Amino acid sequence: MGGGARELAGYLAALAGWVAALAAAVLPQWRQSSYAGDAIITAVGLHEGLWMSCAAQSTGQVQCRLHDSLLSLEVHIQTCRALMVISLLLGFFGIIVSVVGMKCTKVGEEDPVTKSRIAVAGGVLFVLSGLCTLAAVSLYATQVTYEFFRESTIPINARYEFGSALFLGWGAASLSMLGGSLLCCSCPAKERRGQQYHRQPQPSTAREYV
């Protein structure tokens, strides 16, 4: 795979990861009510996310309520909120920076060494964005696991399990880090050596005929 094709593939993967991270941050299905145990399944399914909690009726009606106070939220929710916001900001700047540094764009093509460095910087931003998403999703999943197996959570049907947004977040983190790693493969040093090689003056042969 050529350098330009590799950068384009990395950019598309990272962009898809950023969109998936945005969807995961907005969705309320970070955890959902569990139906484990012998109790009768209720007609109401509960979902909770970083910004709201929802109750889905068996008739298909869904009612959602935003979290009222930031200070009243649990620490892990506040931490996950901050990590997801940082992740989205890093990914947004990575999208802009990578477009400038990719070989397939015309911006700054007169200086390919600096252009490659900009592409590497965009890749680093995408990798950091993926790490923040991974940290947020894993932290929330750890808390859900701890509360599920905590003996004081009674009855068992009052416990929560992993929601679909967690799996979407893990996928988003993987795509962002994969795409950022591909963008980081642009090596300015190789291009610099190539430029120096091509710029070497050719020896003049005019004196041979004098």
From TrEMBL:
Chain ranges passing through the membrane: 75-97, 118-142, 162-185
Domain of life (superkingdom): Eukaryota
Keywords: Cell junction, Cell membrane, Membrane, Tight junction, Transmembrane, Transmembrane helix
Subcellular location: Cell junction, Tight junction; Cell membrane
Topology term for the membrane: Multi-pass membrane protein
GO BP term, example: neuronal action potential propagation
Gene3D superfamilies: 1.20.140.150
InterPro entries cross-referenced by the UniProt entry: Claudin, Claudin_CS, PMP22/EMP/MP20/Claudin
One GO CC term on file: nucleus
Pfam families reported for this sequence: PMP22_Claudin
Record GO terms (molecular function): cell-cell adhesion mediator activity; paracellular tight junction channel activity; structural molecule activity
Main location: other
Function, as annotated: Claudins function as major constituents of the tight junction complexes that regulate the permeability of epithelia.
Protein family membership: Belongs to the claudin family.
UniProt-recorded name of the protein: Claudin
